[in-house]
Amino acid sequence: MLVVSDTSPIINLARIGYLHLLPELFSEIIIPTAVFNEIAGPGNNEPGSDEMKTVNWVKILPAPIQSPLPQLLHDLDQGEAEAIVLALDIKADYILMDETLGRQIALTYHLQPLGLLGILVLAKQKGLVGAVAPLMDKLRSDANFFIDIRLYQYIKTLAKE
After folding, report:
1. How far apart are the first and last CA of the chain?
2. In the structure, what pLDDT confidence band is assigned to residue 2 with cuts at 50, 70 and 90?
3. Residue-range definition of the domain harbouring residue 18
4. Cβ contacts of 26 within 8 Å, gap of 6 or more
5. Is the residue at 68 inside a domain?
6. Fewer Cβ neighbours under 10 Å: the N or C end of the chain?
7. How does pLDDT run across 11-61, given as a tens digit for each residue?
């Protein structure tokens, strides 16, 4: 499965020690240059930055020049906008993205957004994690990742917990 990732899923999986799930779930992981720079570029040292600089399971590509990028930059940050246009260009199976507006815009381009919590549910379905609820708790405590209580319960239901 070919995916393009925005910054948030990478950083937050790294914060809780589960970045290794990405290459276990997806055959190809692409990030646009802007996402790499947000994580590990000059002056940035986010969780996951060492991995983004050294692993062989992520490919960094520039966003296409002929694209809706300038229009997207009116509403989204550089990383989100580049992730959308790159996912369109390479016909990604999923775009890994957590931000609500970015996901809504991705849907208008007929992309399939998959957020961090969806990644965890998929990991459980594939037997890569035993339970999702403790990981959501870890996201809340270690990454200060907001999860609405209704969404928390819904994800537990999806994960059959």
Report:
1. 26
2. very high
3. 2-117
4. 1, 2, 3, 94
5. yes
6. N
7. 999 999 999 999 999 999 999 999 999 999 988 889 999 999 999 999 999
Tokens, residue 134: 């403790």
DSSP 63: P
The domain total for the chain is 1
Whether 86 is covered by a domain: the verdict is: yes
Q: Which two tokens stand for residue 64?
A: 């296409």
Q: How far is CA 42 from CA 37, 107, 134, in A?
A: 7, 32, 34
Question: What CA dihedral angle connects 147, 57, 14 and 102, to 10 degrees?
Answer: -30
Q: What is the pLDDT of residue 144?
A: 94
Q: Which tokens in the block code for residue 73?
A: 């930059």
And the tokens for 82? Answer: 């580049």
Please give the backbone phi and psi of residue 144, each rounded to the nearest 5 degrees, phi first.
Answer: 55, 40
* Local structure of residue 77 (DSSP, 8 states): -
